[in-house]
Design a protein that fits this description.
Number of strands: 9
Low-confidence stretches: 20-29
Helix content: 25-40%
Oligomer: single chain
Distance between the termini: 57 Å
Mean pLDDT: 87
Strand content: 25-35%
Bound molecules: zinc ion
Structural class: alpha+beta
């Protein structure tokens, strides 16, 4: 047992320090604060409201694995809501298959998302989050289809779909 433990520790320590170095730039960014008093919840409050996976995306600006969300293939008519506060963010009419493996939209519901620039991958990207609770949703790019030319690349875990 002791032998097993020490061997495990031996493996764990270098792995953890590598992880720390890699994950360091991510710690610089936190999810956006909400301007709405009632949605300025503490970490603990968010943790009780959300699954650990959704917490990682919405509150720590995480990114889910490509093709991991069932919403990627969601083709029904309806509305995509913020998984944090339930605010409607996207209409199914603006959803399209971008081939990236993440639910993609060419437009958001007016006023539902705010943006900021992040440098997580060194190259600046435009992060966007729910305008009500500040929860991170994804990144928006300029290679989307007409009429807007935008591609809102969204984490499925940050959304809740309600069919019409
Ligand atoms: Zn929200």
């Amino acid at each position: 047992m002791t032998q097993f433990l020490s061997r495990r520790t031996f493996i764990l320590i270098p792995t953890m320090s590598i992880f720390k170095i890699i994950s360091k730039p991510m710690e610089v960014l936190a999810s956006s604060f909400s301007s709405k008093e009632e949605w300025n919840l503490s970490k603990e409050e968010w943790k009780t409201r959300l699954s650990s996976e959704s917490y990682y995306i919405l509150r720590e600006e995480g990114t889910e694995r490509a093709f991991s969300s069932q919403l990627n293939n969601e083709k029904r008519k309806g509305v995509f809501h913020c998984a944090g506060c339930n605010q409607p963010l996207f209409l199914s009419d603006t959803k399209y298959d971008s081939g990236t493996g993440w639910p993609s939209f060419w437009d958001s519901i007016k006023g539902s998302v705010d943006t900021k620039v992040d440098f997580k991958l060194i190259v600046p990207r435009t992060e966007y989050h729910c305008s009500r609770c500040g929860g991170h949703q994804g990144h928006v790019f300029n290679d989307g289809p007409k009429p807007t030319g935008k591609r809102y690349c969204n984490n499925g875990l940050a959304l809740k779909f309600i069919a019409e």
